[in-house]
Amino acid sequence: MIFHQFFEKESSTYTYLLACEDTREAVLIDPVVSEIEHYAQLLAVKNLTLAYSLDTHVHADHVTAANQLREKFGCKTVLHRNSGVACGDIFITDKSAIRIGDILVEARYTPGHTNACTSYVVEGMVFTGDALLIDGCGRTDFQEGNAATLYDSIHQQIFSLPDETIVYPGHDYNGGLSSTVGQERLHNARLGNGRSKQEFIDIMQKLNLPYPKKIDIALPANKACGK
Amino acid sequence: MIFHQFFEKESSTYTYLLACEDTREAVLIDPVVSEIEHYAQLLAVKNLTLAYSLDTHVHADHVTAANQLREKFGCKTVLHRNSGVACGDIFITDKSAIRIGDILVEARYTPGHTNACTSYVVEGMVFTGDALLIDGCGRTDFQEGNAATLYDSIHQQIFSLPDETIVYPGHDYNGGLSSTVGQERLHNARLGNGRSKQEFIDIMQKLNLPYPKKIDIALPANKACGK
């Protein structure tokens, strides 16, 4: 499998490219509109065809490249059915999957940060978007966020994966690139060490986070696939 | 919306083409491999691009055109996740949806005839495959069929649609082209007139149907997308 992790500095967003070595079909997970030239370059250098762009959720902190990638490469825009983004092409639900060559990209519905969050499981890796982050998790105080729901999503859909599964998050603000399910299950500051749901809810309620800087630009743009 | 109903005589199969008048994108539901030239002709005449081929289930009575359509038109092959057909491109689950232009094709999981049956709801129409037929239903005595499951699927996922919804079945053996939800809910010989689940199970158990003629050819072929 061809794998590449991209980083967008302003919003500390990770974007992932996965591709089949045989068929040269590729997907991008959480592409950022400002970074399109980087994606185009890698696709060209590696001789890949972009078949799908996947968003793990409707982002509040950066604008998706979905629409521009569709216009440029003819790929399909994939989102969860609950996203309320009418311009998507394929609206997945829990356990839906997309195949590129011999790679299966499996959706697991992981709401809580938003009501349309999806993690993608691919051959020993899980792309968690803003559900589970390294030593943290997505905030739950806007976009229909709910701490109890996020706790259940992470426990049932992510911590149920084998401990050695590599966790690739949607963001990291401290230079971390990846983690593992075992590491987060045991040591995540908010969820690790067998923390109860009530303890988690209390932690999330006391975070007192500032109003997200780009939400008023990012949300309307992402509801239109980044147009 | 552009709509066309095709008929394949040998297996009495209905295939449906739906397309957006603006974007000219099209889907085919349950295409049959012997009929590809008819589909190609209509696509060309109407200046349409085939974006997806959808199968309501893994058919036992005819071979899908999915793979040949993919090779000819570059469309994506869509099936339910439970189908066990590894060569599909997009594996949907209940409430997944696919958009072509301004048309939303919504999946409703309707198992019972097989464990991977899906009906598709599109603007006042429902394409029921072999779950609900005109004045009948799909058999439940092979391919993980189950009469109780089929009863629940039809009641919860199809009879819950508005009465005026047009029912387009996967087959008809008597020249019927379509029905309505109201007609079938009230008058279907096996399910109408408030028949109980136990009555339905008894009817299905007593059908005593012959071994399906083409199942030994069709099933392995369809597990390989009709290759």
TrEMBL record, chains A, B:
Cofactor(s) essential for the protein: Fe(2+)
Any one GO molecular-function label of the UniProt entry: metal ion binding
Family annotation (SUPFAM superfamilies): Metallo-hydrolase/oxidoreductase (SSF56281)
Pfam family, one: Lactamase_B
Gene3D superfamilies on file: Ribonuclease Z/Hydroxyacylglutathione hydrolase-like
Keyword flag Iron: yes
UniProt-recorded name of the protein: Zn-dependent hydrolase
SMART domains (UniProt xref): Lactamase_B
